[in-house]
């Protein structure tokens, strides 16, 4: 079953230095969807613990299975427009509407 448009939870405002978790979920897809987060239209990298992720100064953890995007400490650099895409290899992937977070 192809995924439906996911529901994204993105806070409008966040204080610098706080923990922010965004969530993305859709329930129709079978097999279960994987989720990809985007910031300002660019796909976010999944942090794998390799050196390349550290040098990119990644301050978040993205879980493609659960759809969560977790910032341990947000900075002004994390301000932007976020959306998430659900895909399970069946039909076309689905996106939620873009939401802006201001830090």
TrEMBL record:
Which topology term describes how it sits in the membrane? Answer: Single-pass type I membrane protein
Any single Gene Ontology cellular-component annotation: protein complex involved in cell adhesion
Superkingdom is Eukaryota
What would be one Pfam family of this protein? Ig_3
The entry's localization annotation reads: Cell junction, Tight junction; Cell membrane
A biological-process GO annotation: leukocyte cell-cell adhesion
Kindly indicate whether the keyword Cell membrane belongs to this entry: yes
Instruction: Write down the InterPro entries for this protein, in alphabetical order.
Output: Ig-like_dom (IPR007110), Ig-like_dom_sf (IPR036179), Ig-like_fold (IPR013783), Ig_sub (IPR003599), Ig_sub2 (IPR003598), JAM2 (IPR042625)
Major location (coarse): other
Q: Which SMART domains match?
A: IG, IGc2
Ig-like domain: from which residue to which, for each copy? 3-97
User: Does Ligase count among this protein's keywords?
Assistant: no
What UniProt keywords apply to this chain's record, in alphabetical order?
Answer: Cell junction, Cell membrane, Disulfide bond, Immunoglobulin domain, Membrane, Signal, Tight junction, Transmembrane, Transmembrane helix
Give the family from UniProt.
Answer: Belongs to the immunoglobulin superfamily.
Tell me what this protein is called: JAM2 protein
- Say which species the protein is native to: Donacobius atricapilla
């Amino acid at each position: 079953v192809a995924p439906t448009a996911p529901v994204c939870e993105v806070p409008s405002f966040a204080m610098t230095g706080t923990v922010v978790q965004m969530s993305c979920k859709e329930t129709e897809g079978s097999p279960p969807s994987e989720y990809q987060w985007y910031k300002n239209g660019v796909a976010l990298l999944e942090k794998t613990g390799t050196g390349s992720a550290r040098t990119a100064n990644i301050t978040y953890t993205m879980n493609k299975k659960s759809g969560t995007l977790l910032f341990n400490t947000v900075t002004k650099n994390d301000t932007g427009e976020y959306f998430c895409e659900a895909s399970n290899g069946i039909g076309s992937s689905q996106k939620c509407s873009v939401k802006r977070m201001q830090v």
